[in-house]
Write a structure and sequence with these properties.
Elements: H1 20-35, H2 39-49, H3 53-67, H4 77-96, H5 100-113, H6 119-140, H7 162-168, E1 177-178, E2 181-183, H8 187-195, E3 201-204, H9 212-215, H10 219-226, E4 230-235, E5 245-250, H11 251-261, E6 270-275, H12 277-280, H13 282-285, E7 300-309, E8 314-318, E9 323-330, E10 333-338, E11 379-383, E12 388-391, E13 396-401, E14 405-413
Parallel strand pairs: 1-11, 2-3
Antiparallel strand pairs: 3-12, 4-5, 4-6, 6-7, 7-14, 8-13, 9-12, 9-14, 10-11, 10-13
Helix pairs in contact: 1-2, 1-4, 2-3, 2-4, 3-4, 4-5, 4-6, 5-6
Keywords: Dioxygenase, Iron, Metal-binding, Methyltransferase, Nucleus, Oxidoreductase, Transferase
GO molecular function: dioxygenase activity; metal ion binding; methyltransferase activity
Organism: Morus notabilis
Amino acid sequence: MSSDTTTRRGGNSFDHLDTPTLDAESAGLLHAISEHGGYAFVGMAAQAAAGDFRAAEAAREMAWEQLHSGPWHSVLPVWRNAYSMACLRMADLHFAGGEFKEALRVLDMGLIMGGMLLRKDLDAAVEKVSTRARGDSRVSGSGCNGGSSKSESRLVDGELDKAEMLRVLPQKSLSCKIVVKRSALSLEGFLREYFLSGLPVLISDSMAHWPARTKWNDLDYLKTVAGDRTVPVEVGKNYLCPEWKQELITFSQFLERIQATGSSSVVPTTYLAQHPLFDQINELRNDICIPDYCFAGGGELRSLNAWFGPAGTVTPLHHDPHHNILAQVVGKKYVRLYPASLSEELYPYSETMLCNSSQVDLDNIDKEVYPKVCDLEFMDCILEEGEMLYIPPKWWHYVQSLTTSLSVSFWWSDSGNSTVS
């Protein structure tokens, strides 16, 4: 940012971001930060509030260091809120200079890494910056539509060859017990036949009213509403592999990698996995609905996550603590399920952080090391576009994307389980 944009603007609300929560909470937050030794941050924050961009940048760097000073669960909430504050100051200055993409990037970092105190200010700032950025794109003619044909803008097009599909799946796939499929299953039927008995079920014809069913297979739409937003992605085969890592990239860059993965072995597999994307990007949240099934048991929704990636992405065999509806919006996935009663035979890791994951690689089973696995009975299915799969708590599941795939998972607890994961 150039030096002539480091001075604070006047009172014109059009060229700065409104931060009512920050304005009200700033003094108390800075006092709390100083009580935790953040005197240097407080000094830089004061200069940032007066319009000094370099001070804002320095304050954000100080908070960033605190966020990485130990395990995430041990980071003090005050430093997460400090990071949000610094992001808002930086974004405000970027916005004043007409640097809308830079402002969005900083605001997204505040949403991803920051605390909850200034969440409303961050959300409102994102909405204001996005509106201005799209307005500028339309005026300059640099929008995403660019004359692309309907087929070119589709994320997934065409049918999947079954023989090819079976070649890439684990051994014995689709040869044992197929998960029962029910059309437009009533809530009462779901509760009585599957929820209370703890059995998986595939549900069709319950997502037709979701705007996402048509919108999310349109690359132009996705780039328009989310292209400049920063998201965390996983790079590598899966989280159990040593070469696995995480990166922060824009959603447009992520979409480009998805499209390139199938045509180039040079592009690493990139997966936007188990990320609360819908807390971050409201336009995408408005495209989906919470299924009525998630209110079964009288509990509450625990998490709402995105699982976006190219064909070949794998979530290795593991289990989760909550009830789970996996909704398939775009593309197809293969899912294999083992009941909780078979946990011992699936060789879970002994380490606390991985105790819900199996040591068995279903794509390449070492029969000498894991002799029990090959003879175990399982259920599996192809999760098609517009279908939902109910996975009961503690059921082991392996998931592989057969095409480019956009899925949403809904975790919820029943009234007898109040544990937050």
